[in-house]
Amino acid sequence: MLKLFEHETLDVHNLGDEETAISVEALSLQFGNKPVLQDISLRIPKQRITALIGQSGCGKSTLINSFNRMNDLVPDCQYSGKIFIHGRNINDKREDVSQLRTQVGMVFQRPNPFPMSIYDNVSYGLRLKGVKVRRYLDDAVEQALTEAALWDEVKDRLFDSARILSGGQQQRLVIARALALKPDILLLDEPTSALDPLTTLFIEELMAGLKKRCTIVIVTHNMQQAARVSDYTAFLHQGQLIEYADSDTLFTMPEFKQTEDYITGRYG
Length: 268
Ligand SMILES: Nc1ncnc2c1ncn2[C@@H]1O[C@H](COP(=O)(O)OP(=O)(O)OP(=O)(O)O)[C@@H](O)[C@H]1O
Ligand SMILES: [Mg+2]
Fold this sequence. Notes:
Layout: E1 20-31, E2 34-45, E3 49-53, H1 60-65, E4 77-85, E5 88-89, H2 97-103, E6 104-107, H3 118-128, H4 134-147, H5 151-154, H6 167-179, E7 185-189, H7 197-210, E8 215-219, H8 223-229, E9 232-237, E10 240-246, H9 247-252, H10 257-263
The structure holds adenosine-5'-triphosphate and magnesium ion (MG).
């Protein structure tokens, strides 16, 4: 195994020579008295697609939210353990959280367009970073909307409110908003659950193309999708990481019965 950082002491999950983007070490997290994640350690490889699967409520969203410190916003959240992104401890008090969230883009489970126009939604992050040149913003907006398979549907109404878009269009809008910042890591929480099969396929193709420049972590309840798009899959159950392997192995020869029961639809 290629040892990149000091904290990478062991290759817990047989990822061979893959470079690490996110390294989670013994992460336990609770909301109030409720334990949600229990002693999770995993290494997410760079420029690969890693899927998180598991029953509703098992902690998938909580886990990816911790990769860009979204759980900081929950007042009674407590955690122990460490998370490194490209070797940097992101919970260090010196971490610049807004910079982190630029580097680690996120698409939430429920689309959350800002109360502004389609154009302003997509260019929001760039304008926040100080980009003012109109031509540059125009190009970035067009490129991100094209990548997110929305351009043709909105190109004639870029300055209309994002609120009038359908649920599936809003989901693609927030994907475009994340892409416009060209993140190193993209966290996608059930990005296609509100999309029709054709648009879903388009987004899956987008993910496959993005791998060249971006590490992707996707939460999905769709087993076919996880098997189709992801290189690695982690199966969580009641806050614990049960199994983590390359997706071919996990979906064809899972090591643990709990994994097998879940992927074959016996529960969940
Ligand atoms: N802000 C919060 N405050 C208190 N409890 C929370 C909070 N967010 C999540 N939880 C609890 O943490 C547990 C894990 O939730 P999480 O959203 O991570 O599950 P999930 O695996 O993403 O589920 P789903 O597939 O339904 O999206 C749940 O029991 C949930 O009720
Ligand atoms: Mg969730």
